[in-house]
């Protein structure tokens, strides 16, 4: 199931971008770090099926949803996803498969620095306050 969710080609592109795991203390008796590819498969499973982390098939993947979530957070903080995006775009460009003639740009996910500017004052959607008659 892992190879189905994370094909070899994707894994070969992503693995070099992942941060190295922190070394374990010499006498650490806790669990060993679980496989990164299995964690990525769990992340893809959640995205593909639109389920919560609790529904990651632990028996099939060998990792829990919590592990997948933690790994997603770790990789996001390390900037893995923008690096992967750049690498894939560069590969498409090198193969002549990136056609910028037909594209759209969406800035809705870009954070407005210093609060940005608004064109109008926000209005309250709450019911109008009624004066007390006491």
TrEMBL record:
Organism superkingdom: Bacteria
Organism: Cellulomonas bogoriensis 69B4 = DSM 16987
Family annotation (InterPro entries): IS402-like_dom, Transposase_6_like
Domain Insertion element IS402-like, residue spans: 7-85
Protein's UniProt name: Transposase
């Amino acid at each position: 199931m892992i190879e189905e969710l994370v094909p070899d080609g994707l894994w070969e592109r992503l693995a070099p971008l992942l941060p190295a795991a922190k070394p374990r203390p010499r006498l650490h008796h806790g669990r060993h770090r679980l496989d990164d590819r299995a964690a990525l498969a769990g992340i893809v499973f959640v995205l593909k099926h639109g389920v919560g982390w609790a529904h990651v098939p632990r028996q099939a993947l060998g990792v829990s949803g919590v592990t997948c979530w933690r790994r997603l957070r770790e990789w996001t903080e390390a900037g893995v996803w923008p690096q992967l995006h750049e690498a894939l775009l560069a590969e498409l460009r090198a193969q002549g498969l990136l056609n910028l003639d037909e594209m759209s740009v969406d800035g809705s996910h870009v954070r407005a620095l210093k609060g940005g500017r608004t064109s109008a004052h926000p209005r309250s959607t709450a019911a109008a306050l009624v004066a007390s008659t006491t």
